[in-house]
Design goal:
Layout lengths: L9 H33 L2 H8 L2 H18 L1 H8 L3 H36 L4 H16 L1 H16 L5 H23 L4 H26 L14 H33 L3 H17 L1 H19 L3 H34 L8 H15 L2 H16 L4 H20 L1 H4 L1 H31 L16
Length: 457
């Protein structure tokens, strides 16, 4: 269902768009969590630590491709908001060419340098082969991950956040079934979890493509609209490459921090893995709220309505902070029993450290709400370079903690690395948001519409 976010009450539109996408995000997190639960319960703690130790490496590579696909949909969203559908299709076609080239390059680099990177991260000797067996399969399936993310992003650019949800629900169910089949029945170990994830994502991508072909006349291309155009690819790359680099810069900090955690012991690795999986689920609504605001800002920029963008930001911040406080309370009450999803009750050290880790992070969730909203709004407005600089601030904070404090203070220091990284990014993003919005407001008329505005695409 196509949904324009340029008319109507901002709060209801934002929440209405956000909810289906949130459910999709949660299902995506679900089948990632199921991998971890089944690995931890049906193999052993070494396997759990091995899969967990790949998290930052996966974020480094997959995060870059996610940024590329997300950035590729910003200009189509602006064109859709402005009603320029032919231009929207031309940008989508050239985004496809850019994503194909990115897939080939990134897959080759990731597969070739995967094991050396695990060694560089000081992955413990007893789990490094386990980690490699899992992540090499995931990297081999980057093509299906990018295919789904691009098609889902295109649908969201037009305001359709429900259709990708349906495909993810089905894929999540398939993923769970394949996890159980490959790990328990076929005894494939952690590689089975990797294959289950790749296959289920491939199914999501295939279903999304079929749906778009059958249900969206607005996405039926003329031959001329599929033309490879250097100018359009460069326009897309100017937005998407910084977004991809922003993910990767943040991920480099996570890799360095993971390396520091690896140097402690495998108990710490397992604890951070369990806490990280729980946290991914808990902060998914904040992340989804941010992605929603990228679409909202992009569509409304398409008609030059700056006042409406500002009103939407106020609504999203209110929703994000309210949720953050509720999540903080939930973490303090339920984090200990949730750890039992990942490890057996006798693994008391892992459970205690995981609870300690996530409770500290939860105290900073309101700050994370600001980070996601401001970063994605700036990206939706086309300012992708500045959020990348905020990612550099996150990197710097994690490097300082990992290299300066973890060697002496150990696990305690690792627990504060992400919160301090969020704080560093939020300081920059908040300042940049108000400066950029202030500049745009100066160019508006009394109704908050940009004077002499036209969709530059």
């Amino acid at each position: 269902m196509v949904r324009e976010m340029t008319h109507g009450k901002p709060m209801s539109l934002i929440l209405g768009f956000c909810l289906p996408m949130l459910l999709g995000n949660l299902f995506q997190q679900l089948y990632s969590m199921v991998d971890t639960i089944i690995v931890g319960k049906f193999i052993d703690v070494d396997a759990l630590a091995g899969v967990g130790s790949t998290g930052s490496v996966s974020f480094l590579i997959i995060g870059f491709t996610t940024g590329i696909t997300s950035g590729s949909c910003i200009l189509p969203a602006q064109c859709f908001g402005g009603g320029n559908y032919s231009e929207m299709r031309r940008y989508i076609a050239n985004a496809l060419y850019l994503c194909i080239a990115t897939t080939i390059i990134v897959t080759g680099v990731a597969v070739a340098f995967c094991y050396p990177l695990l060694e560089l991260m000081r992955t413990p000797a007893e789990i490094i082969d386990i980690a490699y067996n899992y992540i090499i399969v995931v990297f081999g399936g980057i093509c299906v991950t990018m295919a789904y993310n691009l098609m889902a992003g295109i649908l969201r650019a037009m305001g359709d956040s429900r259709s990708p949800l349906y495909f993810l629900i089905l894929a999540s169910v398939i993923n769970i079934g394949l996890d159980l089949l490959f790990i328990i029945v076929f005894n494939m170990g952690v590689a089975g979890a990797g294959w289950a994830t790749v296959i289920s994502q491939g199914i999501s991508a295939a279903l999304c493509f079929i749906y778009i072909k059958r249900s969206y006349p607005i996405l039926q291309f003329d031959k001329s609209e599929f033309k490879l155009e250097r100018k359009r690819i460069l326009s897309i790359a100017r937005i998407s490459v910084p977004m991809g680099l922003q993910f990767s810069i943040t991920a480099v900090g996570s890799v360095i921090l993971q390396s520091a955690v690896n140097s402690i012991d495998k108990i710490a690795v397992a604890a951070v893995t369990a806490a990280g999986k729980m946290q991914n689920m808990i902060v998914a609504p904040l992340e989804t709220l941010g992605v929603t605001m990228a679409t909202y800002a992009g569509q409304n920029l398409g008609i030059g309505n700056i006042k409406r963008i500002g009103n939407g930001v106020k609504c999203s911040l209110m929703a994000g902070i309210i949720y953050s406080l509720a999540a903080l309370a939930a973490v303090w009450l339920f984090s200990a029993p949730l750890c039992l999803l990942f490890v057996d009750a006798e693994e008391t050290q892992v459970i205690n450290q995981a609870v300690y880790f996530i409770r500290i992070c939860a105290c900073f969730y309101p700050m994370l709400a600001l980070l996601f909203v401001f970063r994605n709004v700036l990206q939706g407005l086309g300012y992708s370079l500045l959020p990348m600089m905020a990612g550099a601030c996150e990197l710097a904070a994690r490097v300082v903690i990992a290299m300066g404090f973890v060697p002496t203070l150990g696990f305690d220091a690792a627990c504060f690395a992400s919160p301090l990284a969020w704080a560093a990014a939020v300081i920059l993003l908040t300042a940049v948001y108000f400066v950029k919005m202030g500049g745009l407001k100066k160019r508006t008329d009394k109704n908050g519409i940009l004077k002499n505005y036209y969709n530059a695409s």
